[in-house]
Structure of Redox-sensing transcriptional repressor Rex:
Amino acid sequence: MKQHKLLNLPSIRRLPSYLQVVKTAMEEGKEYISGTYISQELELEAIQVRKDLALTGIMGRPRMGYPVKELINAIESFLQWNTDQYACVVGAGNLGQALLGFNELKKHKLHIVAAFDVDKSKIGKKFHGTEVFSLDEIGKKIKELGFNMAILTVPQESAQETAEILADNGIKAIWNFTNIKLKLPSDIIVQQEDLSSGYAVLSVKMARFS
Ligand SMILES: NC(=O)c1ccc[n+]([C@@H]2O[C@H](COP(=O)([O-])OP(=O)(O)OC[C@H]3O[C@@H](n4cnc5c(N)ncnc54)[C@H](O)[C@@H]3O)[C@@H](O)[C@H]2O)c1
């Protein structure tokens, strides 16, 4: 059975915020950046930042830190954010439409090239420039547009059934925004997105520090 577990998940989750700090430093004209500076900007331990960055294969230079351009390349390459990925949104409702308009994903080379829905009043419409197709057309559109990732934003009661349709039609990875734990063949990669976990951290911080 194929496993998709990553041992260094917390480090991977921190890399995008490092990337943001390093890109800002580059815009400010800095050529080198230290692990200590990144850690202070993000309120982390410097040792943690250095360990996380070591994952990308880059080493800092004594007394100088990391060369900014190389660090950006190393993080983007580790995250595969220097490679174009093509995806569709399935469920063009409130959240689906918001994601269609979220341009940050394009900066990371994730291109949403189609949306799918079962609501006839949405089919044929465009949201933020992306057309909505009937879910019945997914197999045809996968061949035409060449995407293999789906962002699942359907109501939770349709989630499992819709995910099975996606898997049957050749989708290889599902970014699941519903709160249903999907049961799918082991070769399908599923990433569950849970906004409540961010709120959990915020709630605990408010209780402890306010
Ligand atoms: N709105 C949010 O901020 C938010 C945040 C986190 C998670 N979610 C989750 O995301 C999902 C969508 O939430 P929403 O607020 O966008 O709902 P919504 O009702 O606005 O949109 C759901 C869309 O999915 C479509 N749909 C229904 N069944 C479908 C199917 N089988 N195939 C394709 N499309 C189908 C509907 O026609 C509708 O357009 C829910 O599971 C929700 O729990 C929403």
